[in-house]
Amino acid sequence: MKLPLFPLQSIFFPGETVPLHVFEERYKQLINDCRQEAITFGIPVFINNKMEYGVEVQLVEVVSTYETGEMDVVCVARQVFKLLAFDNVLEGKLYAGGIVKLMEYDYEATDEKKQVIINGIRQLYLIMDVPYTEINVKEFNSFTLAHKIGLSFEQEYQLLQIPSENDRLNFISLHLTSTITVLSQVERTKKIIELNGHFKNFDPLDFKDIEI
């Protein structure tokens, strides 16, 4: 499948809303082509000086158009793709394009496994003292949580490449467990430091029955 491409150093997940400010001439042309021809385009992730995976995106709305031709647009991310070939400039266009393979992903997981993730997020937010909004076990998948659990850019890119929902939830669960462990240790250390910073009353030891 051939797609126009809009490379970014950002990661978007299937189902996610993608707000973009478009100011380069090549991408103004791309958005106008999407409006006129109802085509989709791809956002390959630029990471470690290369592009391999990305997400197909569909234009939903042009929110604002400025006198300069710049635009604020809203898109929605659809399917993950693997980039097979890249052309820096498509023939007759200003923007890039490439051959992509759309990846087959599943979104099936048990409520029990999802509940484990919810419990982990609740615990993480509690430790961090961050407001937590209850998550409905029936209404989320791994990708809807991806930006909310403290994954690094590299970890988000790893998650993007995992086709199985069960495997993605396992990946998230491992991250939550390790993060909660580290933060709990930090919190414990913080309390010890705070305690040692105050004057304390010590009970004097009675040495009369001590043998050496």
From TrEMBL:
Superkingdom field: Bacteria
Name this protein carries in UniProt: Lon N-terminal domain-containing protein
A Pfam family matched in the record: LON_substr_bdg
SMART domains: LON
Domain Lon N-terminal positions: 2-178
